[in-house]
Amino acid sequence: MLSPYHPAPSECPICKQSAGFSFKENFKSDSSWSLYECGACAVQFWLPLVLPQGVTYEEEVAYQGKGEVLTKDHARAIAEGYWNVRQFLQGPLAADPNTKGKKLLDIGCGTGEFLFVARELGYSAYGIDFNRHAVAFARERLGLEGATVADVYEYLSTRPRQYDLITAFEVIEHVPDPGAFLDLARESLAHNGILVISTPNRDRYWGRIDPKVDTWDYPYQHLTRWNPKSLKNFAERRGFVTRAFRRELPVEWFIGKLKQAAGIIMGKPRPHDARTVSERVRGGVGFSRYQLIKRVVVALCGIPAGVLFLLGFEGIHMYAVFQKKR
């Protein structure tokens, strides 16, 4: 039987309760981690639940590949390419006729494509991110003066009841204290404010997460793992009501397989060409044609993905809309 690198804690670092903990797996890279699931909150967390000293992945966050295409004209198309953002843009929060003047904060705004679209929708849009390069890119390329480099805990703690809507796409799995994160988000929301969260669904692919494939879902990038039950229960215990919840069809899984096949057909990139398959195709056919090809591929993959979804084979992400309790 596999022994954990780190022993189980006496108290859950997520919900702060003393409960039984089930060991799930170990992971080793530059440091070693052990994954546990709390019997009380059902959140999975890696120990140690901190970034290794001196480690930062700021330089690893991909934004350079957007340099040639991320413009004001292309921002919406790029934003719609993300499943989680698309749920927002196709939902009632984007269709609200009374967005003008409402304050929106996008936590983890990155290069700002969603923030740009939110501003076009009428929101008074602000964004924060730890990545100074991405924020500079958003400010210079998209004119987003509301984008700021900031620590999420420090920023929220000084802005009580400031925002009507807070979005956090793919953020909660990165923070070392999700409870404090949700508490501060709730306090930063105005009366009946809305919190939108998306995060990877650990139940995807029948729960078979492969460290060789899903390298992005391991430390030190991700510190926690969630499924629909744990995310909804955790948010509701922190003063929120669930208003909407969606799970992704495994379309991206199919597209990933197609990209692997395309990479084999296209052959290895030329020396010093670090572009992904997507970037190479986009460079060859142009941005507009690439977007058309992508929409067709997504539509075609949706049919078999829907069948697998009915069989319990879920996609990568889940999307939740929470409302602050009165």
Would you kindly provide a brief summary of this structure?
This protein has helices at residues 75-80, 83-89, 92-95, 113-120, 132-142, 152-157, 178-188, 228-237, 251-266, 277-285, 287-310; strands at residues 21-28, 32-38, 44-47, 103-107, 124-129, 147-149, 163-169, 189-200, 224-225, 240-247, 317-324. It has 326 residues and is an alpha/beta fold.
Itemize the secondary structure elements and their pairings.
Elements: E1 21-28, E2 32-38, E3 44-47, H1 75-80, H2 83-89, H3 92-95, E4 103-107, H4 113-120, E5 124-129, H5 132-142, E6 147-149, H6 152-157, E7 163-169, H7 178-188, E8 189-200, E9 224-225, H8 228-237, E10 240-247, H9 251-266, H10 277-285, H11 287-310, E11 317-324
Parallel strand pairs: 4-5, 4-7, 5-6, 7-8
Antiparallel strand pairs: 1-2, 2-3, 3-9, 8-11, 10-11
Helix pairs in contact: 9-11, 10-11
Helix coverage percent of residues?
A: 25-40%
What is the CATH homologous superfamily assignment of the largest domain? Vaccinia Virus protein VP39
Average of pLDDT: 87
Strand order of the largest sheet: 6-5-4-7-8-11-10
Helix-strand sequence = EEEHHHEHEHEHEHEEHEHHHE
- What is the domain tally? 3
